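Record filed below.
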Amino acid sequence: MKIVVAPDSFKGSLTALQVGKIIQEALVTEMPDAQVEIIPMADGGEGTLETLVFATNGKRLPIKSYGPFMEEVNTEYGLLGDKRTVVIEIAAIAGLPMVPEDQRNPINTTTFGIGDVILTAANMGYRDFIVGLGGSSTNDGGLGMLQALGVQFLDENNKEVSPVGSSIFSVKNVNFKTLHPIIRECRFLIASDVDSPLCGEEGATYVFGPQKGITEDRLEGYDQAMKKYASLIETHTGLRTQSKPGAGAAGGLGFAFMLLNGKIESGSKIVAEATKLQSKIKEADFVITGEGQSDYQTLFGKVPSYVAKLANEEEVKTILLSGSLGKGYEALYDYFMSCHSIATGPMSLKECMENADSLLSNEARNIAQLLREISEERVRTKNISFN
């Protein structure tokens, strides 16, 4: 029996690769002859870099750059197995978890480090980039990143503004002619499942700003400043991108990458294609996927639903194994052969997360016993003589 294990991370407790290895070990314990292939998944957020590097036999390259507060940080970028495509994960450079809760306010954070890492990789000869936009602490419309790439943003005194979120309030002039020439040769594929425009009630500030530290009384003013900033850029470049779906991703980084001819696609789709997931599913008997919590929202573009979609196209049954099953999970039965939670009884979220590895292993072994019975039944049925 061949089984493909393609989970998302259990955020806060296990990476997608850790989840995959735990499930693999449990399956092989109960079915020693099973072929189990791990293809860790991600949707453009935390874990995208690890997933793509592992699945393509690439490597992780350490680098010093600038964090959310322009402080020096040790981070990394990935190089895929094709030795030509660089993976950059926003969460590893300007991620929300990198900012203490009592210091969260995107007027003080920056995307400068992202541009710095891109330029470093480009100067080493790389031109193809996959960028995972999830998990940012920023809302600067990509100003910091663009500054690191050479774009000039000037205030009313014709002086360069600081590369932080508050500077969108003071930008009066912009000059894209100073963009580093090498960047015009680069190709950016943006992994994001956010389809918000840059501004408005469905945009970056209103939808994602509060979780990053923007208080309710400042949302309108911030959004208006973002609109003026974006309109100034559009007038200068002749590009009309602020209203496009995805422009509001990562506090406006989607907008900034569109200015660089970046193409935004579903994060799950990008990871699946890079890992050749569908071709591997085609050869499998079963697929196991999962995430931290599955509920009715899982069907709206999250990793497990995308994996199930590919498996259904190949007529391969998919099993869902998640940290918990939430509101409306019953809707998932139309897409999954069965749905499982790792919780073994009443327990707090903290308890579940602290014991996620053992709980996951136990439930995966339960599933393995069922699959073993199915496999043995297939053998028995095949050996029946009808003479």
Residues 48-267 form a domain with the Glycerate kinase, domain 2 fold (CATH 3.90.1510.10). The chain has a mean pLDDT of 94. Residues 127 and 185 are 7 Å apart (CA to CA).
